[in-house]
Amino acid sequence: MKIPLIFFAILWLAFNPVVNHAKARKDVELAFKRFITAFNNLDWDEFRMALADEVTVFNPDIPEAPSIGRLNGRQQVKEGFKSVFEASRKQASGPPYLHLVPKEVRIQVYGDTALVTFEFDRAGNSLGRRTLVFHRQGHAWKIVHIHASNVTRRS
Fold first, then answer.
1. What is the pTM of this model?
2. Which of 1, 55, 118, 132 lies in disulfide reach of 105, CB 3.0 to 4.6 Å?
């Protein structure tokens, strides 16, 4: 029995690292966009679905954050972001409540891990900088770490 040429083409596409890398990058980009949309809308259910159970977060020094210490795991992240979500809802009508517009987005994929770095404008002369570490868990890309910092722009 002869195996059709199409079968070999499908196998090549499935196991070709270049094709898989491009697909992974696109999947990470989609996961990142869903996360930003959920955050801007202060949609906790969608927000938490983007997070891995073992997620860790370093928050910047902002008044709404109850702690600047590392948050470990989904429960601490929930407790930490609850006050941020509540304060943001009081300050704006929405959704969207926030208007975080990522700039200078860079996605780097390394196998089952990906880094997404970006910046965004903040009030005053401030710039937000974020690094999200994604890990492929099954067929989904989940955030395992968020590192957040804010800086004042130099004149």
1. 0.84
2. 118
